[in-house]
From TrEMBL:
Region (Disordered): 258-288
Gene3D superfamilies tied to this protein: Homeodomain-like (1.10.10.60)
Record protein name field: Clp amino terminal domain-containing protein, pathogenicity island component
Length: 483
């Protein structure tokens, strides 16, 4: 039986849910999948390797193409059926069938949660839909879900509503009709809207925008009751089944006071301030009102005074100054660093192709975002196109040098291997011939002598002029005694 998750909101069953404190099996599975993904191959590296293997490349050449040792492919293939089938030389149809098997197996490990199972397998929404479009896959998926539903019925009698095979088909049909709301779907299936949203996430259905304010309208009455009881924000969030931030947003929307905070004082007009002074009422704000401050605010704003100085003189906060300025439709302020000289200097630095946006930002004392913003406002030409063209010329020149390795070209250009591969494909350059592996026969005698002498793998690799991975592979192939 699945225990209650501390992150019972929309993040449950995702890596974010784990980071937010969720410790249910679904959050743990998502966390383990994310951790394993960072330790192994990236999705882009996996696709590149599969394409290379299907094109007839050897595993060594495919691994070198993504900058990974061939041993890493074997380790990844132990939990990736499609990659295992590709390494073993099976046809592409068998490889794709193995991919389906991985997805169905992930379904059994995630209690039928299609979205989580797809994340575990590294499938995007579009890839999952393509997978379901293959003959027999949708039926197999429904059969696995029905099997898991039957197991849940036997082991968890406390479940009131189960996602049966009939409900799966009915939910898919209703979900595709955008004219039917989630509330109406829930009434048809005899479930709450929250349960419908959870089922949709488990089945990997396409996202649907919730009606604005629907959840707030349903929970407002209960929220007001909890506020009267003096409940904390966390308690109210748990009671209403939403996040703490949603509770805070709702409290602000109804104009209530956050628990533990003093009531918020609204801005007063000059008449209200005068009346409060005559009646001797409490005054938590300065005597300055919007009507009184406006003439002085306009004067200081036109003189270019800093917002902080304006706020100090008027006796209000800088946020209030900005709010009053927006209400008076005063022109937007430029920061102290934003001047004609700074923008002129930006144009000079922007024209220098050797200067990066980071170095320009450091010299002008602004952020990179501001650099790009000013460049766009000043109509400066985009630098990426010129830099990209220069980089493509260098790629073509280095690619022609067969003595240069793919990894060394990427390192000199300062790009990742997948980026270099995209540049090569964009230029239509011919594929690189795989580097011929050193022959074991030429080095076997020397390898055996060095191994018997107790030399380390790194030392042997340097002696023979090969990589450490090659030495490890030779040792395993020769069956040399382990140390």
């Amino acid at each position: 039986m699945i225990k209650h998750c501390a992150e019972a909101g929309r993040f449950c069953g995702t890596p974010s849910g784990w980071r937010r404190g969720g410790r249910c099996p679904r959050c743990r599975t998502a966390h383990n999948a994310e951790t394993g993904r960072y330790r192994g191959m990236t999705l882009e590296q996996r696709r590149t390797v599969l394409d290379a293997l299907r094109a007839g490349s050897r595993p060594e050449a495919a691994a070198d193409g993504v900058g990974l040792p061939v041993a890493r492919l074997g380790a990844q293939a132990s939990r990736d059926g499609e990659l295992r089938a590709a390494l073993d030389g099976y046809p592409e149809e068998v490889q794709q069938a193995a991919r389906v098997g991985d997805y169905l197996a992930a379904l059994t490990r995630t209690a039928g949660d299609a979205g989580l199972a797809a994340y575990v397998c590294g499938l995007s929404d579009s890839e999952l839909e393509d997978l379901r479009g293959r003959p027999g896959v949708a039926q197999a998926e429904a059969a696995v879900v029905a099997l898991l539903t039957g197991a849940a019925r036997e082991t968890s009698p406390s479940w009131k509503i189960l996602l049966t095979a009939d409900r799966v088909a009915q939910l898919r049909e209703l979900w595709a009709d955008r004219s039917i709301t989630v509330l109406e779907i829930g009434k048809t299936l005899g479930a709450s809207d929250n349960t419908v949203w959870q089922w949709a996430r488990q089945l990997g259905l396409p996202p649907r925008a919730k009606p604005p304010g629907a959840r707030f309208a349903e929970s407002r009455e209960r929220l007001e009751e909890l506020l009267e009881e003096g409940r904390s924000v966390t308690e109210m969030a748990r009671e209403l089944g939403v996040s703490d931030q949603s509770v805070l947003n709702w409290i602000e929307r109804i104009g209530a006071t956050r628990p533990g905070r003093a009531p918020r004082q609204q801005p007063v007009t000059e008449g209200e301030a005068q009346q409060a002074g005559e009646l001797g009422g409490p005054r938590s704000r300065p005597a300055t009102t919007l009507d009184q401050a406006m003439p002085r605010l306009r004067e200081l704003w036109a003189d270019g005074a800093r917002v902080r100085d304006i706020a100090a003189e008027l006796g209000v906060t800088p946020v209030t100054v900005h709010r009053w300025a927006a209400k008076a439709e005063l022109p937007p302020r430029r920061s102290g660093r934003d001047s004609a000289d700074a923008r002129r200097r930006l144009g000079e630095l922007w024209a220098d192709p050797d200067r990066s946006p980071t170095s320009i930002a450091e010299e002008l004392g602004i952020s990179r975002v501001t650099v790009h913003k000013w460049a766009q406002e000043e109509g400066l030409p985009p630098r990426q196109a010129a830099r990209r063209a220069d980089q493509l010329d260098k790629v073509a020149e280095m690619w022609a040098d067969q003595e240069r390795t793919v990894r060394s070209i990427a390192a000199e250009l300062g790009v990742a291997l997948p980026t270099l591969r995209r540049r090569v494909a964009e230029l239509g350059l011919p594929p690189r011939r795989a580097r011929r592996m050193p022959k074991l026969e030429q080095s076997e005698a020397r390898l055996r002598a060095l191994w018997a002498d107790g030399r380390g793998i790194a030392e042997i690799a340097e002696e023979l002029g090969v990589t450490r991975e090659t030495v490890t592979m030779w040792v395993l192939r020769l069956g040399l005694p382990t140390r």
